[in-house]
Amino acid sequence: MNQNELNPGASPQAAYGARLRRLRKERGWTQVDLAGRMGYSAVHISGVENGNKFPTSRFSRSADRTFGLEGTEDSFEREWRNVKFGGLLEGFPEYVKYEARAVEIRLYNIGIIPGLLQTPEYARVLADSAVRRGAITPEQADERVAFLAERQAALVRARPPMVFVTMDESCIRRPVGGSTVMDAQLARLVEFAELPNTLLQVAPYEIGERRTFDLPVNLLTLPDRSLICYAESQAQGNLDRESTSVAPVLTAYHQLQAVAMSQAASMAMIEQVRKGTP
């Protein structure tokens, strides 16, 4: 089979194909060899490797069985989800890989409950709304909800990370999906705050200009104590691993926590919202 030069950085699909080719060659297999092991044609393997054929969930699971990657963080099925979510902002798929092994996670959100704290129903409403706007397909909506569930499950481990969440008051005031969905979501926040490895604070409207962020921000502390920052706007995401630029963001996060309400006061506000009182 002809093998074109492939730039892994061109797209998630190109990275998938380049990695498949690399692992195949490391084992000394031809495309025909891999095709026989996976139950596909050599033409199919060539198409995926060259980035001309879109990988599927079934193909990815077969690749994982063949290369012994089932259930690992480096599985092709997990990478396929990154390919499938072509609408995800730049840097986010890579961020998620770090998130799964972080020892500390700091989140700040505006308007929407952070994904790691969303109930399935709340997440589904947001995904379906994106479908109605024509931003994603129904299939992508299903995958988006499933992908979020995987992120949440990755944090349930023997030694879970410490999770700090500071959310703008708009996150709990903005109704999403109706009263039933919203009440369950607010109840989920209360449950989250009761965990021994969490801290949840609401940044009230009244802090005004003392709010240090105007966009959502995610900060990770990895096992080696290095820091990663992921921030996004409506159209662009940015992953930053440079300590000189991430450290000031961490300082700004601490400053925000200082002016936000305590967890006890935040829980009281959430309960007031649940009861429909101002």
UniProtKB/TrEMBL annotation:
<feature type="domain" description="HTH cro/C1-type">
    <location>
        <begin position="20"/>
        <end position="56"/>
    </location>
</feature>
<dbReference type="InterPro" id="IPR043917">
    <property type="entry name" value="DUF5753"/>
</dbReference>
<protein>
    <submittedName>
        <fullName>Scr1 family TA system antitoxin-like transcriptional regulator</fullName>
    </submittedName>
</protein>
<dbReference type="InterPro" id="IPR001387">
    <property type="entry name" value="Cro/C1-type_HTH"/>
</dbReference>
<dbReference type="Pfam" id="PF13560">
    <property type="entry name" value="HTH_31"/>
</dbReference>
<dbReference type="InterPro" id="IPR010982">
    <property type="entry name" value="Lambda_DNA-bd_dom_sf"/>
</dbReference>
<dbReference type="Pfam" id="PF19054">
    <property type="entry name" value="DUF5753"/>
</dbReference>
